[in-house]
Amino acid sequence: MKIFITRAIPEAGLDLLRASGHDIVISGKDGVLTKGELIAALKAHNPDAVVCLLTDKIDADVFAAASNAKIFANYAVGFDNIDLKVAAEKGITITNTPGVLTDSVAEHAVALIFAVTKRIAESDRFTRAGKYVGWAPMLLLGSDLKGKTLGILGGGRIGSRVLEIMGKGVGMRCLYYDIKRSEELEKATGAEFRASIEEVLREADVVSIHVPLLDSTRHLMNAERFAMMKKSAYLINTSRGQVIDEAALVTALRNGIIRGAALDVYENEPALADGLAELDNVVLTPHTASATDETRSAMSEIAAKNIIAFLKGETPPNVVKSA
Ligand code: GLV
Ligand code: GLV
């Protein structure tokens, strides 16, 4: 059968698809397809399955352009780029790539926690700029983490792994908020549950966000909630940019409402909120939390396995449904 892939991904999954006898068509464009280009490509190739990316907005028009494709395998764990309601109405199966990116995203969140609290990126800029003229008692002071409190919003796989690393490895006291309490998470990480976001925000020295983007999590962090955080606290986001009111975050960082932030995702990617890039108390990475050789290959294999199973008439391992 014919599989359309909206942009080049690592070979590992392509090899699996070819080994199963499928034909692969990869979009020739080195960039995100516009909606018009995506629709034209789907009409031209008429694929039986599609591998799409988090940068592809998959809606009713796109489904209609690929009338033979009854599976869209998203090359991402998040799937807020896909209209799941329309997919369900049309009987189209949607899959994602959970599990394989848990460690890399959690490690990236941990790297961001260290980077912002130890002022690593800022110190690097300072040193390269030739401003280092000698050791000084008060130069670029940051914050220690041992004994401080880490608060996680969203106790899924990634949030849980961050708690485990920072609790067991670094000796942070760990709290988490989630819509449901998890004994498994508590056993694995030693974290304490808090029944409201506000309780976590008031107690935490570092807040790290690990929720999916849903109507209920859009602007979960806003001016009112920044004001509940400690002035000395840091905010980390590796989930989805729209979870934070980014303009309000710039204001909070500028006015010392919180001490710092580290972000891998942005409200209007790839654009940054006005003023964000001028602030020294933020660390910014370009949505690369899952970008390791190992993880991106594993994501490619998972997307392929979902398609292979579906085209054999089996239930794919990673079907997603709307909440
Ligand atoms: C990346 O953001 C993903 O959802 O996989
Ligand atoms: C995503 O994989 C999560 O459950 O955190």
Total count of strands: 12
Instruction: List the secondary-structure elements in sequence, H or E.
Output: EHEHEHEHEHHEHEHEHEHEHEEH
Physical arrangement of strands within the biggest beta sheet: 8-7-6-9-10-11-12
Could you estimate the helical fraction of the residues in percent? Answer: 25-40%
Which cofactor or ligand species appear? glyoxylic acid
Largest sheet, described in full?
Answer: 7 strands, parallel
The name CATH uses for the topology of the largest domain is Rossmann fold
Could you characterize the architecture of this molecule?
This protein has 323 residues and is an alpha/beta fold. It folds into 2 domains: 2-98 and 292-311, Rossmann fold (3-Layer(aba) Sandwich); 102-284, NAD(P)-binding Rossmann-like Domain (Rossmann fold). The chain has helices at residues 11-19, 35-45, 60-65, 84-90, 102-117, 120-128, 157-169, 183-189, 197-203, 223-228, 246-254, 293-311, and strands spanning 2-5, 23-26, 49-52, 71-74, 93-95, 149-153, 173-177, 192-193, 206-209, 234-237, 260-263, 282-284. It has a 7-stranded parallel sheet, sandwiched between helices. Strands 2-1-3-4-5 form a 5-stranded parallel sheet, with helices on both faces. The two termini are 31 Å apart. The mean pLDDT is 97. The protein binds glyoxylic acid (GLV) (2 copies). One glyoxylic acid binds next to helix 7.
